[in-house]
């Protein structure tokens, strides 16, 4: 089965449709499938329900789909850092289903594992639990949460082979592995594409059986940083003082 496609538009051809539910990996801008998101924008599909920890930032990541109003509903944990998101929500133009972060992760994992629902204490007695069934276990109240299976999952991986086996790099792993298992079709973008057998089976995180289509990120692919934080540069040593002199040494 041919899994590698020449570009994001080709990889998503015949998969996208109005009103579908999409898992979108990433956390902030870390590990987001940006090329696939851009292709979804160009396709023009609308009324999407997007499951993602958050909605990127204005003009980047899922923020692109908010700008074009292609997203009808977000199922998310955190929705800060995006003024467009806030504006549409407050204007009643965007539906939001808030989830505690661990609950969201488990809902996706459960969907991939074939578990239709589970119980958790998180959210009991809050707005999160409104309208949801509850039950008592060992004297404690738990709220029932449903697993989520999407029509499409788009994920970003650091390395993959042409059979679809994927590994992720550090924190870019985040929601990507669980989302890859919890959709009818999973499409991956990978930074480094290798031949089968070049990835040690012991370090494969997402087995290729879950991945239907994939693309390789082009040379110069840019990974955006949400908030760049750096250390303050240290003051240069006084060469004159270091040599025992009383006056600073003039620059050459």
UniProtKB/TrEMBL annotation:
<keyword id="KW-0808">Transferase</keyword>
<feature type="region of interest" description="Disordered">
    <location>
        <begin position="229"/>
        <end position="252"/>
    </location>
</feature>
<dbReference type="Pfam" id="PF01144">
    <property type="entry name" value="CoA_trans"/>
</dbReference>
<dbReference type="GO" id="GO:0008410">
    <property type="term" value="F:CoA-transferase activity"/>
</dbReference>
<feature type="compositionally biased region" description="Low complexity">
    <location>
        <begin position="237"/>
        <end position="252"/>
    </location>
</feature>
<protein>
    <submittedName>
        <fullName>CoA transferase subunit A</fullName>
    </submittedName>
</protein>
<dbReference type="InterPro" id="IPR037171">
    <property type="entry name" value="NagB/RpiA_transferase-like"/>
</dbReference>
<dbReference type="InterPro" id="IPR004165">
    <property type="entry name" value="CoA_trans_fam_I"/>
</dbReference>
<dbReference type="InterPro" id="IPR012792">
    <property type="entry name" value="3-oxoacid_CoA-transf_A"/>
</dbReference>
């Amino acid at each position: 089965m041919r899994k590698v496609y020449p570009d994001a538009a080709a990889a998503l051809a015949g998969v996208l449709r109005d009103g579908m539910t999409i898992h979108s990996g990433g956390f902030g801008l870390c590990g987001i499938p940006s090329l696939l998101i851009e292709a979804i924008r160009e396709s023009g599909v609308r009324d999407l329900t997007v499951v993602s920890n958050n909605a990127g930032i204005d003009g980047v990541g899922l923020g692109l789909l908010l700008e074009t109003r292609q997203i009808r509903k977000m199922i998310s944990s955190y929705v800060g850092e995006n003024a467009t998101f806030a504006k549409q929500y407050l204007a009643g133009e965007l539906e939001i289903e808030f989830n505690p972060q661990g609950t969201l992760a488990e809902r996706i994992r459960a969907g991939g594992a074939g578990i239709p629902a589970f119980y958790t204490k998180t959210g009991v007695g809050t707005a999160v639990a409104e309208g949801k069934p509850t039950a008592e276990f060992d004297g404690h109240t738990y709220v029932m949460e449903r697993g989520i299976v999407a029509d499409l999952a788009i994920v970003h991986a650091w390395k993959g082979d042409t059979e679809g086996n994927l590994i992720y790099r550090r924190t870019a792993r985040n929601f990507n592995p669980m989302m890859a298992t919890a959709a009818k079709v999973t499409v991956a973008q990978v930074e480094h594409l290798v031949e089968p057998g070049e990835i040690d089976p012991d370090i494969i995180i997402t087995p290729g059986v879950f991945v239907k289509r994939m693309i390789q990120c082009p040379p110069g692919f840019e990974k955006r940083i949400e908030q760049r934080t750096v250390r303050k540069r240290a003051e240069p040593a006084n060469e004159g003082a270091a040599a025992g002199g009383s006056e600073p040494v003039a620059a050459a």
